[in-house]
Amino acid sequence: MTLHQLNNHLNPAPEALPASPALRVDGLKAYYQTRWFGITREVRAVDDITLRIEHDEIYGIAGESSSGKSSLIKTIAGAIRPPLNVVGGTVNFDFGTRKVDLYTLKPEERTAIRWKHLAYIMQGSMSVLNPLRRVRQSFIDFAFRHMGMPMPAFLKAVEDHLLRLHLQPGVLDSYPHELSGGMRQRVVIALATVCRPGFIIADEPTTALDVVVQKSVLTMIREVQREMRASILFVTHDMAVHANLTDRLGIMYAGRLVEEGRTRDLFRNPRHPYTLHLIRSLPRIGDAEPRQGLEGTPPNLADPPPGCRFHPRCPIAMDVCRVMVPPMQALGGGHRVACHAVTEGTVQ
Amino acid sequence: MLKIFRDLLRFNLEFAIGTLIVSIIVGLSVLSFFSPYPPEDIYVVAPDVPPSWEYWLGTTSRGQDVFWQMTAALRNTLLFGIAVAAISRVISLTIGLVSGYMGGMTDRVLMSINDTFIIIPLFPILVLFYFVMRDSMSWALLALIMAALGWAYDARLIRSVAMSLRTREFTSQCIFSGMSPRQIMTREHLPYVLPIVFSTTLNNMNWSIGMEVTLSVLGFTDINTPTIGSMLYWANQHTALVAGVWWWIAWPVIAVMLLFIGLYLLATALNEYIDPRSRLSRMGGAT
Amino acid sequence: MSGADTALLDVRGVSRSFWTGGLLSRRRIDAVKDVSFTLTDARPEIFTIIGESGSGKSTLARMILNGMNPTSGSIAFGGEELTTIRKTRDRMRFMSRVQPIFQNPFESFNPLSKVDRYLTMTARNFTEARSRAETDDASDRALRKVGLSLAEVKDRFPHELSGGQLQRIAIARALIPGPRLIVADEPVSMVDASLRVAIVNLFKDLRDELKVSIIYITHDLATAYYISDRIIIMRKGEVVESGDARAVLDNPQHPYSILLKDSVLSPDVPDDDEPKTIERDRAARSH
């Protein structure tokens, strides 16, 4: 092997894509490893996940409790703490001006990245805003250092940002408890995006909100994305939100990605039996057709079933599903699915 | 339960050291039953002998063997602590659970009694009791009085837990399963507060032993029963330090300090085990 | 009066207010304002109360379960005023006919108790079953109605079961006394989507096969449409619209009902050339 070849081997040339994606996750594995009073447990919350998120795109992740979706985004955001550890794989961001391999960085650098280039919007908005200070102070506390401009200019920038998001700058003078739940969540989104990050991670940001408010918050998220041309990784268990917001969608089950594709394709033509069930079982107003529930229970990630993790609940499970993990199979048009039945063509 | 104990012993250093120290103290107290001299008797050995092969820890100016005297003192002190803790736990559990679960008027009445006990100054009350009772003041009576005064703080703690348990959905489920308030309190709520009771027991023992030592040193208790406190009282009476009989004071002080440290370590270790945050991180949990 | 005319549940002009704030700045909050409806005994139905947070729907549920008295108005169950049900015997009789299902299946079972205990207690307190074999038999029969069996549930702790299973066990428990009415407060909002339909279907079966009336309290219009016979829509304590479920939801009249229906995100993806629902909304507003 020549030195040149070796060099290529160690630093493979970028793939022949027009630009590298905003986020590249390769073979990511993150396990909860606990050792407490003699009992060692390993919970494979994120097990071999590979995905790409393009620039200027809203990518959704859907999954139920114990699907590992929260652990996945914590890992992608670099916000993991023991006992959750990254066991393998890489997380690469491309923020345009800067490319980052998240888990080769020192922890301090990772934290710095999280404020400047990454925004993280969580479900509980109260934990972000200081309940004893006016909202203005929260903006100063979180964002002032990262903006690198004098205070008057900073406050002007904050007000402009709020106006762009159709929020009255008057909210800056309020205390968090004076705002309604929906308004608070909007303020938190404004706060998370004031540094104009290239990548936004949203973890169930509308789950605790009433339906009327939920819609306006989602509208705001969509607008922020349009305006800033940012990429958003949006996680929720609510399929209706995915249908209305995301461009592409990944379905997680028991720590693995089971299907991925354009949201529209996934809803029109779901291939994995689990996705199929999630979409078909949704009740709709104006449609009282009887629907079938899915039997069984989500698996215990500390002791997942062998083979395809969905097989104990799968209506079309075959023998191979019980022993072999189905590989991710590309179906064209960016649609990927991990199911033996699809690979072997037993289902259409 | 045994398994938890074994795991704690193996993986929690505080717990291991605490257990070791407390076992030594308990071992010493058990030895008191094999004492060659009755612990109350005086002038059974030569007085003021420094530690030697014959008298390991020396002898007192009252002609007692410090080692055997101390084993009896430790036994009584330890029993005193256990008695106070046990009685006061029963009171605080009952008051706390009933007050927290019943709420309303019951809660208000019980808590006003409770708060009275929290704010009355303990030490003067105990001294007052001594002056009233004088010679009829015995070890058991003091334990009863201390227990009657030492439950209030923990009852409030238990009440706050019981109050939050009352609003949990499972309590409603119990009510609609037809369970009586007594069944709900003893079968459903008690297991939740037991861990708190365990750790407060150890702290309560420390508190009552400390109080007993203080009262005894000042002579405000039954000084004829050998306890760590009364040993120190007699040592002071005989001006042991001035007379150079340092071993009369040093050994009991070391023993009682070890007991404090041992109980404290056990309490912290149990607290850590009980604390929901550390329990959560232990369970890890997939989300 | 013939049996067919008796009202199972008669809610007449019920209001409930709370006082908040200090002595001088007391404010009255009307959680429920003048709500009336009647469920008939003859025809079991699923009666849905729709509302968002703060609509007073949970307060109303608590009053129906006799956990709280109305400030004004009255609630009668089977012709009996709930305010007169105070003695233990009367309360037990009431609970044998009205049973609740709670929101969070992980909260509605004590994590430290085995789940079958609740079934056993309910069987013992509300049925003739006394011996272990009899209560087991009663539990098993109830569990089979919800698609489980005692063998799957016996000696299990809540954390060993899924949310869907726990919610079904909760329903089985509520069925043991043979109730006429089940009050379910957001029973599926904490249950995973893949398990939700099964539970909602179960409510239909209870109505059709066991002839149990169900008050289904929810914020979710889609499941309400799927299973309800009649609905009321509540906002800030007041009923803004009521009637046949399909009719109201297909064609809401009150501005709030219309807003609520429009806010529900459709789980259908729009066509390529069509903007997504949330963008249509914004476009409409900016014009």
From TrEMBL, chain B:
<feature type="domain" description="ABC transmembrane type-1">
    <location>
        <begin position="74"/>
        <end position="267"/>
    </location>
</feature>
<dbReference type="InterPro" id="IPR035906">
    <property type="entry name" value="MetI-like_sf"/>
</dbReference>
<comment type="similarity">
    <text>Belongs to the binding-protein-dependent transport system permease family.</text>
</comment>
<dbReference type="GO" id="GO:0055085">
    <property type="term" value="P:transmembrane transport"/>
</dbReference>
<keyword id="KW-0813">Transport</keyword>
<dbReference type="Pfam" id="PF00528">
    <property type="entry name" value="BPD_transp_1"/>
</dbReference>
<feature type="transmembrane region" description="Helical">
    <location>
        <begin position="113"/>
        <end position="133"/>
    </location>
</feature>
<feature type="transmembrane region" description="Helical">
    <location>
        <begin position="139"/>
        <end position="158"/>
    </location>
</feature>
<keyword id="KW-0812">Transmembrane</keyword>
<dbReference type="GO" id="GO:0005886">
    <property type="term" value="C:plasma membrane"/>
</dbReference>
<dbReference type="InterPro" id="IPR000515">
    <property type="entry name" value="MetI-like"/>
</dbReference>
<feature type="transmembrane region" description="Helical">
    <location>
        <begin position="246"/>
        <end position="270"/>
    </location>
</feature>
<keyword id="KW-1133">Transmembrane helix</keyword>
<feature type="transmembrane region" description="Helical">
    <location>
        <begin position="12"/>
        <end position="34"/>
    </location>
</feature>
<keyword id="KW-0472">Membrane</keyword>
<protein>
    <submittedName>
        <fullName>Peptide ABC transporter</fullName>
    </submittedName>
</protein>
<feature type="transmembrane region" description="Helical">
    <location>
        <begin position="78"/>
        <end position="101"/>
    </location>
</feature>
<feature type="transmembrane region" description="Helical">
    <location>
        <begin position="213"/>
        <end position="234"/>
    </location>
</feature>
UniProtKB/TrEMBL annotation, chain C:
<protein>
    <submittedName>
        <fullName>ABC transporter ATP-binding protein</fullName>
    </submittedName>
</protein>
<feature type="region of interest" description="Disordered">
    <location>
        <begin position="264"/>
        <end position="287"/>
    </location>
</feature>
<feature type="domain" description="ABC transporter">
    <location>
        <begin position="9"/>
        <end position="261"/>
    </location>
</feature>
<dbReference type="InterPro" id="IPR003593">
    <property type="entry name" value="AAA+_ATPase"/>
</dbReference>
<dbReference type="InterPro" id="IPR027417">
    <property type="entry name" value="P-loop_NTPase"/>
</dbReference>
<dbReference type="GO" id="GO:0005886">
    <property type="term" value="C:plasma membrane"/>
</dbReference>
<keyword id="KW-0547">Nucleotide-binding</keyword>
<dbReference type="InterPro" id="IPR017871">
    <property type="entry name" value="ABC_transporter-like_CS"/>
</dbReference>
<dbReference type="InterPro" id="IPR013563">
    <property type="entry name" value="Oligopep_ABC_C"/>
</dbReference>
<feature type="compositionally biased region" description="Basic and acidic residues">
    <location>
        <begin position="275"/>
        <end position="287"/>
    </location>
</feature>
<dbReference type="GO" id="GO:0016887">
    <property type="term" value="F:ATP hydrolysis activity"/>
</dbReference>
<keyword id="KW-0813">Transport</keyword>
<keyword id="KW-0067">ATP-binding</keyword>
<dbReference type="GO" id="GO:0005524">
    <property type="term" value="F:ATP binding"/>
</dbReference>
<dbReference type="Pfam" id="PF08352">
    <property type="entry name" value="oligo_HPY"/>
</dbReference>
<dbReference type="InterPro" id="IPR003439">
    <property type="entry name" value="ABC_transporter-like_ATP-bd"/>
</dbReference>
<dbReference type="Pfam" id="PF00005">
    <property type="entry name" value="ABC_tran"/>
</dbReference>
<dbReference type="GO" id="GO:0015833">
    <property type="term" value="P:peptide transport"/>
</dbReference>
